[in-house]
Specification:
The protein is an alpha+beta fold. It is built from two helices and four strands; from the N terminus they run E-E-E-H-E-H.
């Protein structure tokens, strides 16, 4: 059940350097989908007010999420 009074901020600006990868941390896959996809999908169950903070590889992160979500 969505509660419109909840605002969710997802911090997705990590480089993933400890993962020994050049890929943005949130773009690494879990069950075939980027990590950030799963976080946003579950967040949407709680609220429509979701903000995602991006920095490292911002364009790649945003482009990837636009493949899955048309409203972020």
């Amino acid at each position: 059940m969505k509660n419109e009074k909840i605002s969710i901020v997802i911090l997705a600006a990590g480089k993933g350097s400890r993962m020994k990868s050049n890929k943005a941390k949130v773009l690494h896959t879990i069950n075939g989908k980027p990590m950030l996809y799963h976080i946003i999908k579950e967040s949407k169950k709680l609220s429509d007010d979701i903000s995602v903070v991006v920095s490292h590889q911002k364009e790649a992160v945003m482009a990837t999420m636009e493949l899955y979500f048309d409203d972020i």
